Amino acid sequence: MDNRAIGVFDSGLGGLTVVRKLRELLEDENIIYFGDTGRVPYGTKGTDTICRYTGQDEAFLLSKDVKMIIVACGTASSVAKSVTEKLSVPNVSVVQPTAKAAAAATRNGKIGVIGTEATVKSGSFKKALLSENKDLEIFSTACSLFVPLVEAGWVKDDDEVTVKAAERYLLPLKQKGIDTLILGCTHFPIISGIIQRVMGDEVTLISSGEEAAKAAAELLEQRGMLCEGNLGKEEYFVSDDIPSFAKTAEIFLGRSINDSVEKINIEEY
Predict the structure, then answer these.
(1) What's the pTM?
(2) Consecutive 10-residue runs of the chain (269 residues): their mean pLDDT?
(3) Dihedral sign of CA atoms 157, 160, 166, 167 in order
(4) What is the 3-state secondary structure (H, E, C) of the chain?
(5) In the CATH hierarchy, which top-level class contains the domain 95-209?
(6) What number does CATH give the domain 6-93+210-268?
(7) CA 124: distance to chain centroid?
(8) Residues involved in catalysis
(9) Where are the domain boundaries for CATH 3.40.50.1860 in the chain?
């Protein structure tokens, strides 16, 4: 047993979808979350910058003596794999678990992938999917506007701006005849209602955040590192404004976290 916290980081709030699923699966676990809200989004940054940011995020979590790190950022998982591979603690990214789930879910072998520009450009999900099944057909689209729309709270199913953006991005994928769609950024499940409406009920959505949480829970159990006793403590850290993070976090988590958020200077790590 290991009562140290699970560390989770993302470029902003999207990784909270991982936290929500973790809490559902592992109610006793302590969780430390870092959202790099001062430097969001990562998806439009260059490779060197993304790798540097990822290293700093992981260094911060390690300073909190976490037992595991979940890279809840699709961009960091895709672009900064070489940084994460050097970690001294067990780690899980969103790419491989999500690809495995999508490959198992598809019926016609046609899978769509949506993510940030950097994630799509890296080809990480395509590579992971083909490692699961070389005969899959994969169609990828960068949906760069989704992250700022979610961060701004424009997430209602009838929000006209977000619906129009979704139609612009997703209708070409629908025309390809995909039956499974990977939400390759952990922000995207927050607008899954809009995405599902545009794609149609016949398309299965695969949440990268949920799959990462499932993989983390399985790994901790396999290694005998689960928490002993009902602790369930949560700490949240950000690199920018606390009130705006806490307000939007309620959308992701379905509850208030006002009293457990602290601002840090991530450049010190």
Answers:
(1) 0.90
(2) 96 92 94 96 93 98 98 94 94 96 98 95 96 97 93 90 97 97 93 97 96 96 92 94 90 85 97
(3) positive
(4) CCCCCEEEEECCCCCHHHHHHHHHHCCCCCEEEEECCCCCCCCCCCHHHHHHHHHHHHHHHHHCCCCEEEECCHHHHHHCHHHHCCCCCCEEECHHHHHHHHHHHCCCCEEEEEECHHHHHHCHHHHHHHHHCCCCEEEEEECCCHHHHHHCCCCCCCCHHHHHHHHHHHHHHHHCCCCEEEECCCCHHHHHHHHHHHHCCCCEEEEHHHHHHHHHHHHHHHCCCCCCCCCCCEEEEECCCHHHHHHHHHHHHCCCCHHHEEECCHHHC
(5) alpha beta
(6) 3.40.50.1860
(7) 14
(8) 73, 185
(9) 6-93+210-268, 95-209
